[in-house]
Amino acid sequence: MANQSLADFDTDDNSYISEKPFSDEERSSWIAYSSKSALFRAIFAAFFFTLKNIPAYIIDTVTKMLQCGTGKLGFTMYQCPSCGQYKKVPFTCKTRLCCSCGNLYNMQRANAIAEKMFNVNHRHAVFTIPDTLRPYFQNDRELLDLLFSTAYDTIYDVIHSVCPKLDVTPGAIAVCHTFSRSSRWNPHIHYDKQTIM
Question: What is residue 116's predicted lDDT score, i.e. its pLDDT?
């Protein structure tokens, strides 16, 4: 399709004009995926935007997630030097909320952490705070840093009280979750710790 031009592209959606970019089976699979993706976006948006008192940064993140891969966040255009056919590749949102981008981020982060781990025994610990203190952390997110340092200090103190004669330094990987499995505000720290002598 050498006569194809950039005018053939709609910048508001993820379509591009081509005679037959996929086999019939691939096309059916893509249409089914696109339909499910569009349905998810429509249902999610219809529910989410009825909620009240949502912080601006969450609205921004959700909006980006709903626009991920649609072309609304921009795109790159490629042209085949042989046939002149164009291919539009939409930008992704790169938010952790997104099922696609968030999963990719998690895999990359987990691999990067795994490369730095020592081959020793690890323990998992969870540190949380009482219900009565949670609103303070919800209103002032900077207090979450206090959770990290307090949890580490607790690990350090426990190890040194149990093994006072050993000169050990606990190493840890910590992750802060701000919600429970039931989606209620519950800031807590997950620690995977190892002891280095």
Answer: 81
Secondary structure of residue 188 in the 3-state scheme:
strand
Same domain for 96 and 124? no
- Domain membership of residue 20 (yes or no) is yes
Parent domain of 172: 117-196
The pTM assigned to this predicted structure is: 0.52
Residues 96 and 121 in one domain: no
The last residue of one of the domains, among 66, 100, 134, is 100
Structure confidence at residue 13 (pLDDT): 45
Separation of alpha carbons 132 and 181, rounded Å = 19
Residues 6 or more apart whose CB falls under 8 angstroms from that of 101 comprise 65, 68, 92, 93, 94, 95
d(CA 179, CA 185): 5
Mean pLDDT of the chain: 77
3-state secondary structure of 125: strand
**Rounded-to-integer distance, Cα 163 and Cα 160, Å:** 5
